[in-house]
Design brief:
binds zinc ion, alpha+beta, 13% helix, 90 residues, two-stranded antiparallel ribbon
């Protein structure tokens, strides 16, 4: 965990809080073998999940690529707004 994440729009996201509304994880279907589904262990999931960040100012969604590299690729939402994808929903 780094503490801060700099979005290319200039926003600085705090990644300190836990749970954190800007951080999440993406699982590829390729990694969801029967092993993982049968044994829902958070450590195992963290081994195969990709870190995701969402900027609450511009709505960019950032994916770590390659996984574990601390390098990131971003996607800008077509609706042009922050969608709160990683906020906990009731
Ligand atoms: Zn941003």
């Amino acid at each position: 965990m780094m503490g801060k994440f700099n979005c290319s729009c200039g926003e600085v996201l705090s990644t300190v809080g836990c749970p954190n509304p800007y951080e999440g994880y993406l699982l590829s279907d390729y990694n969801l073998d029967d092993d993982i589904i049968d044994d829902v262990s958070s450590i195992k999931i963290m081994d195969i999940a990709r870190d995701v960040r969402e900027c609450d100012k511009c709505g960019r969604v950032w994916f770590e690529e390659p996984r574990g590299s601390n390098k990131w690729v971003s996607y800008i939402p077509e609706n042009g707004k922050y969608n709160g994808l990683l906020k906990g929903k009731e």
